[in-house]
């Protein structure tokens, strides 16, 4: 592409993540940052989802933790859902539950409808 912009980056990151190529998706996210493209909430959902599907828990936590201090962006319930999902996928159910309980945003259906919604009443 002659000019790469946030929408094109988000699309390719999301596509790789959805099709089981999480490692490529996070490499692309890192490339985007190196090129000086400022991420938005949508690209964070894409990269966090890719981390979830690829089992990249540590990397996903690092991205999630970078949202506010590095980019001035508050995490929304969609970001928390992704983190709860990847914590649950690797069996860190207590950590997922702690995160749900610490959410500054109101809990919504997707968090409790995740495969780990049983955490609602531990």
Describe this structure in words.
- The protein has helices spanning 6-18, 22-34, 41-54, 57-71, 77-89, 93-102, 109-112.
- Helices cover 67% and strands 0% of the residues.
- It is mainly α.
- It starts with 5 loop residues before the first helix and ends in a 10-residue tail after the last helix.
- Helix 1 (6-18) runs antiparallel to helix 2, helix 1 (6-18) runs parallel beside helix 3 (41-54) and helix 4 runs antiparallel to helix 5.
- The longest helix has 15 residues, at 57-71.
- It has one domain (6-116): Serine Threonine Protein Phosphatase 5, Tetratricopeptide repeat (Alpha Horseshoe).
- It is globular, with a radius of gyration of 14 Å.
- It has seven helices and no strands.
- It holds the Pfam family PPR.
- PPR repeats lie at residues 5-39.
- It comes from Abeliophyllum distichum.
